[in-house]
Amino acid sequence: xxxxxxxxxxxxxxxxxxxxxxxxxxxxxxxxxxxxxxxxxxxxxxxxxxxxxxxxxxxxxxxxxxxxxxxxxxxxxxxxxxxxxxxxxxxxxxxxxxxxxxxxxxxxxxxxxxxxxxxxxxxxxxxxxxxxxxxxxxxxxxxxxxxxxxxxxxxxxxxxxxxxxxxxxxxxxxxxxxxxxxxxxxxxxxxxxxxxxxxxxxxxxxxxxxxxxxxxxxxxxxxxxxxxxxxxxxxxxxx
Length: 239
Known about the structure:
The chain is an alpha/beta fold. It has helices spanning 2-13, 24-36, 47-57, 73-81, 97-105, 118-132, 168-179, 187-194, 203-217, and strands at 16-20, 40-44, 61-65, 88-92, 110-113, 142-144, 149-151, 156-159, 162-164, 185-186, 227-230, 234-237.
């Protein structure tokens, strides 16, 4: 009886992952590899199944293929973002940069292109879980700018009186800049803090995410006043 209780507790403590893909071999490979590394894995092979499973299992991270047989992955992503901020890693054979930008703008936290290396994928998965589980201090301040307000405790941004939806990754970038108000934060520092040490040279990630943040927060994204670029060095937040 005691052993059963411990087994149940161990299952409850495992990070819950929902993997959505219509290729049986990919589902099987990810299920085996993730289970072997202590994750609790649920799989779905359709968009409708993904939305149902997400509601039933409350995953802590979702791996989502874009090319699903019934509902386009972008539609599934939009459906998820209507009610949850869970980190989403898009897994797709589409290599066009426009698809990557569209996925990130739609609320994805990362984009992995097929075929992929399992170890790199697992590193990205762990980074997404960390971003989604960062806790905040109850005494954190509220930072107000002309265009938007950042509530560090509630992990929320308000613009024009309404909350702005940010993905966990977007929040991670914004939070780091806000906490270092007025200071230049280097590209490598942001990448390492938000994505992990293995991403220190992926500056293209930052350009995409800063562009997305500016579209969501700045009055004129083409002439940002609060999220500033220091060419070749990093970024700076000013009120």
